[in-house]
Amino acid sequence: MISLLFHHQSYKDPQNKLLDAALHLYTGKGFRETSVLEVVERARVSKTTFYHFFNSKEDLLVQLFQSLLEEVLQEVRRTAELETHIAHKSFAGIRRYLEICNDHRPVARLLLVSSAGLSSAVEEVRHKAHVEFAIFIYESVRVEIEQEGLVSDDQIHTAAQAMVGAINEVVIHKIIVENKKNIDELAHLLNHIAIGAFTMLAENQMSFKGGMRL
Amino acid sequence: MISLLFHHQSYKDPQNKLLDAALHLYTGKGFRETSVLEVVERARVSKTTFYHFFNSKEDLLVQLFQSLLEEVLQEVRRTAELETHIAHKSFAGIRRYLEICNDHRPVARLLLVSSAGLSSAVEEVRHKAHVEFAIFIYESVRVEIEQEGLVSDDQIHTAAQAMVGAINEVVIHKIIVENKKNIDELAHLLNHIAIGAFTMLAENQMSFKGGMRL
Amino acid sequence: MISLLFHHQSYKDPQNKLLDAALHLYTGKGFRETSVLEVVERARVSKTTFYHFFNSKEDLLVQLFQSLLEEVLQEVRRTAELETHIAHKSFAGIRRYLEICNDHRPVARLLLVSSAGLSSAVEEVRHKAHVEFAIFIYESVRVEIEQEGLVSDDQIHTAAQAMVGAINEVVIHKIIVENKKNIDELAHLLNHIAIGAFTMLAENQMSFKGGMRL
Amino acid sequence: MISLLFHHQSYKDPQNKLLDAALHLYTGKGFRETSVLEVVERARVSKTTFYHFFNSKEDLLVQLFQSLLEEVLQEVRRTAELETHIAHKSFAGIRRYLEICNDHRPVARLLLVSSAGLSSAVEEVRHKAHVEFAIFIYESVRVEIEQEGLVSDDQIHTAAQAMVGAINEVVIHKIIVENKKNIDELAHLLNHIAIGAFTMLAENQMSFKGGMRL
DNA sequence: TATGAATGAGACTTCATTCAT
DNA sequence: CATGAATGAAGTCTCATTCAT
């Protein structure tokens, strides 16, 4: 997989030329506002080639999402692994994620806000990426807090998903819409929230029975 | 404002007939897959009338979203107000929100996953609703935890936004996709997460200075 | 019948207000380019009133044509009657006709070129007017040339019709399109042509038998 | 230019398929009563193709007129050229014209009565055809009568135009409306009228000075 | 009668997609 | 593979006409 986010040569193979052209046009003027003709003209390939590699206009978007999300996740995981202090892994990952979103704000906007509702295939790709992100969060935070194993795995997974939603929502509001620059502070805050959430979960893990409340 | 979610008579005025028809078709076969022709045929009004009330196909979606989101928020706030025990208000609101999403799963799907990316106007409506939801969370949780006033308002707002994202992400994965039925448990979990997040925030409010980490 | 061409007060009765408004708008921007709304707004009456007096937008045009063509024919006949010299009657009529077309060029354009093809009713009105004009020509010229009665009435009628076409064609090309001003010269020419045609007809009335030629 | 009037295969290229379909529909139920949808359905092409070849519904009519009028004029000129007797050329042309109008009465109706008033472009095409027809008349008749060159060219042109109007008017009344069959007699009559008109013109060419009358 | 909402038809346009050369 | 013609679906808009108040 050739990087769409971090490499900036021009691609040789038509498929990547198309993905690159699509990335620029979709982030520039939006997916719906971009016609297939514009994509193939920018990529300097023919419509025949386009339909050889992609089943439809939306398929291009799906593959583009797949590439981008994979890249982002890989980069986040790589960064966390580089962090030697075990208590800082989740922070490092979250921070890197915010950084990428901040550095490629149009791409983040495309992935997070201007994307859904286009096809179930796109939703599925996003869904899978969220699941993987949640797994990363789950695994990073788990090693940071003392877990007595009393919290069910299912609850922890749900909490991890919730944190993914929390992070993305903050990215949308703070980074994309409000254009906040202090990534470190946001990452710190989100990491705190995550740790707080998991900690609270561990402490109160037995307080819920059936319809009872805390 | 006439309720689109909870009333089920047939409307008299063409605007509501169109909104109702759109709700059914968009939740049934999707926004993009529904043509204006189908909407006006189901609503039994003319295309001219459609374009009299709505500037475009997307404008109909925007107004539909506005109505639905207002309704949901109002219902959530109303339910929280009915809860007399002050420590249970946030739980009551979250629980009601999950309940509505569960009872109207196609609508929830429309609002949460199959909607964005259609126009900036839709995004804006969703954004505003999220902000209002965050305010509700913020106000509900604030009265439940002992706040020494040491946490900045901005941080609490961000945390509230994060919680909105957390809740919606869980709704998408657990209620919409996985079709989980135990609303109470999910609400309990999410409420815990929220309280945990806010508590951790209060405890560590001073631990972050510049680029430092927890 | 109130004159639309030569009177210039504002009308009291809605029907004439509508006809007058239509005349101005149709000659100004064309029949097809004028909407019913514009007509009723200019006439300061309601759509209800419009459809009380006229069955349709085209019906208004038909009645307008009827009025205008009647007026023009009446004026042409009146002028010919005022001419005492019997040999000048046809010239006087033709001259007056050209004069009216020249003085009201937009109206002439409407009647002669921008009108047909709209409905069979319009065509019929025009057809009748042409027939009446032909009768005038026929009667005027008949008294001017010595007729031995050898020419069939049918032939003379046809020749008269031909002269109507000849006159109108010249009006279109010379007065409307080329904007020629020397009405007298044109009238003289056309009158000559008419007399020449009828004379030739009389001289050669027996030369045609079956498929033979002159 | 492929003949629309005299050929009767089905066309290959969409443009001619559309022109042919339009010819049938416009002559059958009228231009205004025919929708673009009907035209493309009859021609078995798509609306996109329609708007690729024609700018508008009216543009199709304009191009159709152009083709038809060119065809008719060409046929008339060709017939006159085949006539060896120089004194019969104008008769031959006029006769052929009447014959075509008689053989294709719906087309003649379309061209002569149900056409104008639709757009200035249509009027222009008709105007040009009339001018060309007038030139044909002028040239044909000029060689038949002894011209001393005393009549101004402008007058002869005007007379020729008048004859075009005369012929068309007779076609409308006698052939199209009254459905007369004796083409030969009508042609003979019209030719006589034309010759009479031109002769009279030549005889009296100096009798008009300024505002004087014959 | 006036007003204005509503209708229904149809013109025009853009595009994703297909197909022949 | 490239080119470009053609398709068909659907969005948008304008109007003549009708109807209720």
TrEMBL record, chains A, B, C, D:
<feature type="domain" description="HTH tetR-type">
    <location>
        <begin position="12"/>
        <end position="72"/>
    </location>
</feature>
<dbReference type="Pfam" id="PF00440">
    <property type="entry name" value="TetR_N"/>
</dbReference>
<feature type="DNA-binding region" description="H-T-H motif">
    <location>
        <begin position="35"/>
        <end position="54"/>
    </location>
</feature>
<dbReference type="GO" id="GO:0000976">
    <property type="term" value="F:transcription cis-regulatory region binding"/>
</dbReference>
<protein>
    <submittedName>
        <fullName>TetR/AcrR family transcriptional regulator</fullName>
    </submittedName>
</protein>
<dbReference type="InterPro" id="IPR023772">
    <property type="entry name" value="DNA-bd_HTH_TetR-type_CS"/>
</dbReference>
<keyword id="KW-0238">DNA-binding</keyword>
<dbReference type="GO" id="GO:0003700">
    <property type="term" value="F:DNA-binding transcription factor activity"/>
</dbReference>
<dbReference type="InterPro" id="IPR001647">
    <property type="entry name" value="HTH_TetR"/>
</dbReference>
<dbReference type="InterPro" id="IPR009057">
    <property type="entry name" value="Homeodomain-like_sf"/>
</dbReference>
<dbReference type="InterPro" id="IPR050109">
    <property type="entry name" value="HTH-type_TetR-like_transc_reg"/>
</dbReference>
